[in-house]
Fold this sequence. Notes:
There is one protein chain. By secondary structure, the protein is an alpha/beta fold. The protein has one domain: Aldolase class I (TIM Barrel, Alpha-Beta Barrel), CATH 3.20.20. A hairpin with a 2-residue loop joins strand 1 and strand 2. The longest helix has 11 residues.
Amino acid sequence: MIPCLLLRDGGLVKTVEFGSPRYVGDPINAVRIFNDKEVDEVVFLDIGATASGDGPNFDLLTDIASEAFMPFAYGGGVATTDHARRLFALGVEKVVINTAAVRSPELVGRVAELAGSSSVMVSIDVQRNWRGQYSVQAAGGREDSKRDPVAWAKEVERLGAGEILLSSINRDGTMSGYDLELIKHVSEAVSIPVVASGGAGRLEHFRQAVDQGASAVAAGSFFVFHGKHKAVLITYPERREIEELFT
């Protein structure tokens, strides 16, 4: 169960269907809380980095790396092997590639050559239209690649990705549950781990995603909001609760 935290302009935000970002706090504070909770892994995604063209915020990531006791992955604005090399040098365990993989698929293999496939996670953002058809989106959901998510998942595995972060745009921030059909189709098509993201609102949602083939589950709102009014409270379940959930 992986907290997936969104960065924008140096702060933590949370979106709904990839829009309406709401400020929810300071990333360093969140890291310290997750340290105390003994979280196994965290993913940071900078949702403003691709649009700005500035690339990763290395200063902020240096601060995060100095505080984090757990491995963390980073994505956002990663467009070159130099970006990836600098991230690995900072201590980032996995580099997450999304838009650059859609625009320049060969980048996936080049980054895998730097640190191995296990250090490369390709993020696949998927939009479902009113007819129930899926399409892979880039640039934070603003650019329709016209790719089928199952075919694209197979392709990024072939290119050298060691893991897929599969996000449902329609379910993002809704806390209504994962898109189980999407998870099942993609997980069955590839042999690399698929991390499901988008829609977790209750503990049973995590179990449902794993039952459909997800190797791991990621969430944002579940870990940063509390109660029906969505008050900001960064937290994480007790290890006992997690063990009971998956046994």
